[in-house]
Amino acid sequence: MKKLLPLCALLTGMLCTLASCNNDDQPDILPGNGNVPEAILEQFKKQFPDAQNVTWENQADGYYTASFTTDDNPQSHNTAWFNGHGYWDMTNYEIPFTTVPQAVKEAFEASDYGQSGSGWRVDDEVDVLERNGNETLYVIEVQKRENGKETEIDLYFTASGILVKELADGDNYNRYEDYLPQQPAGDIQTWLENSPYKDAGIIDIEREDEGTEVELIYNGLKVEILFNHNQQWVYTKTEYKRRNQSQVPETILNAIQASQAWQNGYTRLEDIDFYETSLSENFYCIELENRFDDDVKIYIDENGNLLDQRPDIGNGNEGQGGIPVENDIKTFIETNYPGAIILEKDYDHGLLEVEIRHEGREKEIRFNGHNEWLSSEWDVRINELPDAVKQALNDNGYRPDDDKATYMETPDGMWYEIEAYKDRHEWTIYIHPDGIILDAKLDD
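Above: the chain's sequence. Below: its structure in token form.
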């Protein structure tokens, strides 16, 4: 990802700001048994016979939760979730990091957060989300202090060591309501039962007005399947990380290395996503980085042919565009980028990245764990730069070394990021649209 200006260090601070709580949303506290239905109490006692210090809460969504400790681990905080029908759905509890499954430990150590010298510190305790009928998740918290600000990221791993989500200072407060197990229904259930994914482990099911997104694990890979508002299949995305490159066809890997982006120094493979679609040909989306952490995406069809642009896969809803996102993010995009089509969403380094197509450009919008807007960026041609920017570059002896620049917007301001040459050195120039050079960094 692109590195932002030092003057925008407040973005890191925003990641550390906790959202305020509305007292009206707080659950009713029911010490001891309170008014908990007898069926739930019986199920709880049967499932957790050694529970101690039990406190019940009546959640607004109809769930009852029991917080308790156990004799074998009196320091651990456990919470069990029971639905209104008296059935157990989820338990979250703590274990020492040293006792996580070996696959989880190895996957963490292989990630950017577990590398020696990365600066990330891992918490001693790991939250475990054991869920009825859905994949068990291990939540590892890491912290890093930069520019005087502390950033925390929650990493969600499956028991087999697949990193399925990175969330910067998420809004769960160790309650994890969003991870209560879900099961497909209706035409979606029928489609899955007749697909190769019928026995796959479910991570999450997200339902929004535009459609339903099912996340699952299949053959050791994370798979996202999108259905439209009529529960009709739109596309399937399979995610290949760096460690899964051996599963990518050799023709695709060869096409990546033959691409212009690779020849221009973007030789670090970050992600490879394979799309099977109902509206266009199947294709691969590949994210590459260079040594300056700048990134670029290229698109290749199944036969290894480089595509000029991302195929339009839509969401399968007549008169609508985009994949489902939460309502507050949808409102932000509709307000600030009217008419935009949401192409993709993903988590990277703890931030939610939403890609849109707006006014003929692909733009990337980032949000933190509270769905608060952090930044937007998109590419522009050098000849599209304001005259004041072109003049400032010329007056200061900078010569752009590429045909494009990056336009950035944040709550703190806006600027262009331009790679340029001066005195036989490569520079990254940060310049305001009115021509004021905000910063210039020598690329070592």
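The helical segments are 10-15, 38-47, 102-110, 186-193, 250-258, 260-263, 327-336, 387-395.
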